[in-house]
């Protein structure tokens, strides 16, 4: 099946984002996006139609699709799409297959220029063919989003249950609960530091199965884990406040603290409620020590109540894990189909769908 070749300049107008200082507000409901994702909310939008967002500086290798009013900061381009030629969501899929780092023109910070982007050549089928291709991909993405929403609800339920059990210390210390008390965090959790991954040819090779987990996310891949059990990870150096649930083998990097506990869900809730800025020891960059985490005082209930909460929370979060695993399978299916569909290798022109 033959597609027509267009330059990106024919398909979109690339527009610069703007400084968000005058529109950012705690009362805003318009998402503000930067190259790293959501940065806050604004009181008005910069653009209110479906658009493909492209990094200008910083993270330039990941495009984003939005179909709601938004604001982008000045390190992120947004696009006004020529819908007579291309459906915005289809353009997003095509752009997601391009390695934009090949077009980096920055020295210290990765950067993309409008002129360079405008010259990109893309093979685009007719709008009718685009619609057919999207009809294969859209249900997969919709199911992924649904699972994400279900998981958000499950996590909120567990948080609400924790708050109802342990959020009122006066209740916790009265009557039959007088044996509840504040204890050092190390009495219910083991805290250790991750390790620097070995430098070999397998590191960051996505064909190897073991993720290298940093302070905020997966940094790459390696061939062997340093943790096989269910763990919780927070940042030790750099970014603080992001709690990562890891339930399969991984390599925890040296900028993380690794927490294990027989009371996994209880400890997870505690980690989400710590004021990490209050225990920061860093000057040039944030730093949290094992000792400070171990000596944090936390409210610990009696064993009966603790195990009761753990049973309820574990049941809800088990469904979360099932949804996450399903999303991994769906993402793999989509990513396998995507290049074949947009290249024309899978010909949908004759299919009636």
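Q: What amino acid sequence fits the structure above?
A:
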């Amino acid at each position: 099946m033959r597609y027509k070749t267009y330059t990106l300049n024919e398909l979109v107008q690339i527009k610069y984002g703007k400084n968000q200082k005058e529109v950012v507000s705690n009362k805003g409901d318009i998402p503000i996006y930067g190259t790293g994702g959501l940065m806050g909310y604004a009181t008005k939008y910069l653009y209110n139609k479906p658009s493909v967002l492209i990094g200008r500086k910083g993270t330039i290798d990941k495009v984003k699709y939005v179909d709601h009013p938004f604001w982008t900061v000045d390190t992120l381009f947004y696009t006004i799409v020529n819908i007579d030629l291309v459906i915005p969501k289809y353009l997003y899929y095509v752009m997601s297959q391009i390695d934009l780092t090949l077009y980096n023109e920055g020295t210290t910070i990765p950067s993309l220029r409008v002129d360079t982007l405008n010259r990109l050549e893309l093979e685009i089928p007719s709008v009718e063919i685009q619609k057919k291709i999207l009809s294969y991909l859209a249900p997969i993405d919709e199911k992924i989003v649904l699972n994400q929403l279900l998981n958000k609800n499950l996590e909120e339920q567990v948080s609400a249950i924790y708050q109802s059990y342990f959020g009122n210390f006066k209740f916790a210390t009265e009557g039959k609960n007088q044996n509840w008390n504040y204890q050092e965090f190390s009495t219910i959790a083991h805290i250790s530091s991750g390790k620097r991954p070995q430098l070999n040819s397998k590191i960051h090779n996505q064909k190897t199965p073991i993720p290298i987990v940093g302070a905020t996310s997966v940094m790459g891949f390696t061939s062997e884990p340093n943790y096989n059990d269910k763990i919780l990870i927070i940042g030790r150096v750099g970014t603080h406040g992001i709690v990562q649930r890891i339930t399969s083998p991984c390599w925890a990097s040296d900028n993380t603290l690794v927490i294990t506990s027989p009371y996994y869900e209880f400890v997870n809730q505690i980690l989400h409620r710590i004021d990490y800025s209050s225990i920061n020891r860093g000057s040039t960059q944030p730093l949290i020590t094992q000792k400070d985490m171990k000596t944090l005082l936390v409210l610990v209930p009696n064993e009966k109540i603790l195990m009761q909460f753990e049973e309820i929370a574990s049941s809800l979060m088990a469904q979360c894990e099932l949804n996450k695993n399903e999303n991994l399978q769906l993402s793999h299916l989509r990513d396998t189909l995507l290049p074949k569909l947009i290249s024309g290798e899978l010909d949908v022109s004759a299919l009636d769908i």
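Q: And what stands out in the fold?
A: Helices lie at 8-11, 88-96, 114-118, 127-166, 169-172, 264-271, 290-294, 303-343.
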